[in-house]
Design goal:
Number of helices: 1
Helix content: under 10%
Largest sheet: 4 strands, antiparallel
Order of helices and strands: EEEEEEH
Length: about 110
Amino acid sequence: MELEQKRFTKNDAGFVCAHCGRQVEPLGYTSRNHCPFCLWSLHVDILPGDRANTCGAPMQPIRVEPDRRRGYIIIHRCTKCGEIGRNRAAHEAKVQPDDISLLIRLTAGELPG
């Protein structure tokens, strides 16, 4: 009998954003998977936090969907392979919260320039 693979791996390391170049600090409670300043991500996970995807390309935030239970969900599209990913926003984080004005603009369908 095979063991079921974990669906989430906590990987809360800081990083330098590949898109805007700013230093991003760890969240402290879950995996930080996108930049709080520009909302861009990297296509590095197959399952959240596993860092097992070999694509590695930048993922552009293309829209944000409000969710009653989970807050804002950022929808990213990989700039290389086109895969769509969904990430929960960290707009209420104590350390470097996501840019709420950018989240709202993306909710309204405005793509960042």
